[in-house]
Design a protein that fits this description.
The protein has 19 helices and 12 strands. By secondary structure, the chain is an alpha/beta fold. A hairpin with a 3-residue loop joins strand 5 and strand 6. The chain starts with 5 loop residues before the first strand and ends with a helix. The chain is elongated and about 110 Å long. It has a 3-stranded antiparallel sheet with strand order 3-4-7.
């Protein structure tokens, strides 16, 4: 076994990459990089019934977007390939035959419905475990199909050390004689991953806690071959918060649960990765915002928690908004534009200006379309919306203000934030009203809503003179009916 740290991410190509899968890949990558080691991508595609044809491309795209870059893998190559399990079938067969020869495995000729009736054992009842060589040969001569099963010890216990949970012991009589090679010649996960991890010189296995109960079976396989097992790190699940305040394993009912879904909602890949890294890992400082390189420098297994972490969308929003603040206005405008929807000619020209207003006001790009919808179409509203107790504004007060503001704005030849601002302040200084008293009815008439990105000056500029005057006239008409 190499002294160099080598970790792996070994997903099954059966669908999208769940947040828990992403975290597993991220921790394996960070631990390898923190120790000047190698990170391997291996595709475990032996379950052909669940295989999704484009899932491998999806995995590759997700890792690339998250900046988790393998040192070895199907697309990259390496000294220990192939890195797709369906291409390694002959390798697994060789090692399975060796186990049979040395008495650690056996051929099982039972049909899938046979051998599961023993009251003393919840799994396969080991009907074929001690068949005589003559009976075995009869089956082989007859062409009977078979699986290859691991011959588990019938007594004693198997103990292994987990770097998060400590020593874990499972009684051997609880272990079924698991299938190693299926009837179609494909290996099971529990067999293939042991062979591959050994041959690829993996030093640390980082995976979900659901594999703890399988690990004694893996340890016994290592022992059967005379191999030293790697270090084991089993991560607790990522949980979601239910409506009643309880938590359960993160699933669709909690919201978006895949990296791709979150990106589609307008979260930055870097922000997602940063947040996911802290779902179960605590750095030794109070720092929360990390680049990938910064995380790789400080990541350590002793910072992993035994407890489950709860995925908090509000916290993710905070992370994403902090990443927005670090972007230049130009970069934000370019990245946000695809989320804006159809823009008027006026807004297409003024998009950088509008994007700069949106940048500190949104948590994710996906909020943009709703926030700027009123620019395209003024929503229907009633005169009651003009009421605002804080600014002492009533529909009657608004009915007096809007015509006067129209008169102050209409003569403007240059429609810029500066000229608009000068005209508004000239009216406010002349009428003796407070700023809020004037701005409230203007905001309502221009947008049809109480909250907008930017103030009234920005709205006037972005909408353009012609549309603004039309909307103010519509507000006057609505107020004329009170």
């Amino acid at each position: 076994m190499s002294n160099k740290v080598r970790t792996r991410f070994a997903p099954s190509p059966t669908g999208y990459m769940h947040i828990g899968n992403l975290r597993t890949a991220l921790y394996a990558y960070l631990f390898a990089k923190a120790n000047d080691g190698d990170f391997i991508l291996r595709i475990e595609d032996t379950d052909r019934n669940r295989y999704v044809p484009d899932a491998v491309d999806f995995i590759n795209r997700t890792l690339a977007a998250a900046h988790i870059v393998p040192d070895e893998g199907p697309e990259i190559g390496g000294a220990f390939g192939p890195y797709v399990q369906s291409q390694r079938q002959e390798i697994y067969q060789k090692y399975a035959d060796a186990l049979i020869e040395n008495g650690f495995a056996y051929r099982c000729f039972c049909s899938p419905d046979e051998g599961h009736t023993a009251a003393s054992f919840s799994g396969y009842d080991r009907t074929c475990r001690d068949l005589s060589p003559a009976v075995i040969q009869q089956h082989l001569d007859a062409g009977d199909s078979f699986v290859i099963r691991q011959k588990m010890p019938l007594n004693g216990a198997t103990t292994f050390h987990d770097m998060v949970h400590g020593n874990i012991t499972i009684q051997n009589d609880e272990l079924e004689d698991q299938v190693l090679i299926k009837r179609d010649g494909m290996p099971t996960y529990n067999f293939a991953n042991v062979i591959d991890d050994h041959l690829m010189q993996v030093t640390h296995i980082i995976r979900g806690v659901e594999f703890i109960t399988s690990t004694p079976k893996h340890v016994l396989l290592y022992q059967s071959f005379g191999w030293d097992p790697p270090a084991f790190v089993h991560l607790p699940p990522v949980m979601g918060k239910n409506e009643d305040g309880s938590v359960s394993k993160l699933s669709k009912r909690h919201g978006a649960t895949s990296f791709a879904e979150l990106v589609a909602m307008g979260y930055l890949p870097e922000a997602i990765t940063n947040y996911v890294a802290l779902l179960g890992w605590s750095p030794k400082s109070n720092q929360e915002l990390f680049s990938m390189d910064e995380m790789a420098k400080v990541f350590a297994l002793d910072g992993l928690s035994k407890s489950s972490a709860v995925f908090d969308y509000a916290k993710l929003n905070w992370f994403n908004s902090e990443y927005f603040k670090q972007m230049s206005d130009a970069d934000f405008a370019q990245a946000a534009l695809p989320f804006a929807g159809e823009l008027t000619d006026e807004l297409q020209v003024k998009w950088p200006y509008l994007a700069a207003l949106l940048k500190p006001r949104i948590n994710r790009y996906g909020e943009i379309a709703d926030q700027i919808a009123f620019f395209r179409t003024l929503p229907e509203y009633s005169s009651e919306l003009f009421s605002n107790k804080r600014n002492k504004v009533t529909p009657e007060v608004s009915a007096a203000i809007l015509p006067a503001v129209c008169a102050a704005l209409e003569p403007l030849a240059d429609w810029t934030p500066d000229t608009i601002n000068t005209a508004l302040h000239g009216y406010i200084d002349g009428c003796g009203l407070k700023m809020g008293t004037v701005m409230w009815p203007l905001r309502i008439a221009l947008s049809g809503q109480k909250v907008t990105p930017g103030g009234v000056t920005e709205l006037l500029y972005l909408l353009g003179k012609e549309i603004c005057l039309k909307r103010l006239q519509k507000g006057i008409a609505i107020l004329a009916n009170i």
